[in-house]
């Protein structure tokens, strides 16, 4: 069957009646909700590629969900496309309501759009996610979605052609979506005019122990040093095969049911962040805006380092002292008590060894083919993105050294058995991902913005491993926010001038950067002979 590239259409979820899309004036902006619209997206953008054409699923389209905010739009304004990334579209509404898209829309009379990624939210090509059905979940297919959408989208209540490249489309994404923004501009820069990539992992590795580096460096050091020592002591028990002591240690945390030492190590690292799918608000979830970033990490650290802990907790520090020449495990009682009091209740079933909590050794549970964001994210990690969080090979660590990349690789093997048309590699094909340019990734009107305390920063443009000499310019701008975490610039409070200094200046820089680009759009458009 031959693909009909130009026959796809647009289906709105609601009536095309303009009044149906009017935003009520008396609704506070941070409470605005947006109706879903659906776009007929191609399942396969590469009909001539043997990788995809071999599948009998490669033809046709699927419904890709998107959301629109036209409250600031005036004719001639740009379209801002927010890349939803590894979550649902509605979970990104804050970016239209008060965040970076709102900031840019207001500054430039733009239109805001959230496009839900394929295989997330409700934008699944198929009713299940078998290995064969996941064949079309690749970086190239995802970024092609963005370009194809920009070339064909229409918007409820707007009687004008705003498609690219005739209208300036500027993308924004944070985290994985930031990388997809960067790659979209790199590959489809003839269609998409510009993009801001925030905390974008552009150079990946199979293992990523550096995730813990900002926490090790910037978190309260009394807390960090106590955890480092407790982890060292646990690892010594493992090394010396003190099985009885290991079981005693697990019992202190109420986690004796976790038979795999790696699962246990991940569980007690949950408040910090772990290799699996942690349940706590960790360092990564901290935010300059308390609406979006609870302070749970600091409550955790405050407990571990509490110098006024009650005696019943400080006595626990001596529970395993006979294995360390009589030296107490300082902070162990408070650490264990925090896990039992605040972390374990995050597992509603109470079955801590289940896949819903911290147990990961049930192979059949991983093989569940239900459409979920967890399954989609794991698949892309397994095939090309890697970045498995593991413990460092040397030096102090917040995560036990029992955790290495094989811990997560086994999930890939269990979750995605070989299909008829698709099988996952034995280890992520990171060269396919890094082949876009890695730390040297560059494109006209592609801006990189990162935070110095982001756990993912060493995969981003401002990584400590990146080349030191790269020129910045209006066409290739970059900004490093001192003290900021994971795409902190995506959040706002409807008043840039009232924001904390380092966020305010980042937002003003982004506004200025985009305005510079827009001033040159007509010349760019003319050069394309549009």
Q: What percent of the residues sit in helical stretches (DSSP H or I)? A: 25-40%
Low-confidence stretches: 1-25
In N-to-C order, the SSE pattern is EEHEEHHEHEHEHHHHHHHHHHHEEHH
Put simply, the count of helices is 18
Sequence of strands across the biggest β-sheet: 1-2-3-5-4-6-7-8-9
> What does the radius of gyration come to?
24 Å
Number of strands: 9
Gross morphology: globular
Structural class of the secondary elements? Answer: alpha/beta
The rounded distance between the terminal residues' Cα atoms is 32 Å
Report the major sheet: 9 strands, mixed
Compute the average pLDDT: 94
Strand content: 5-15%
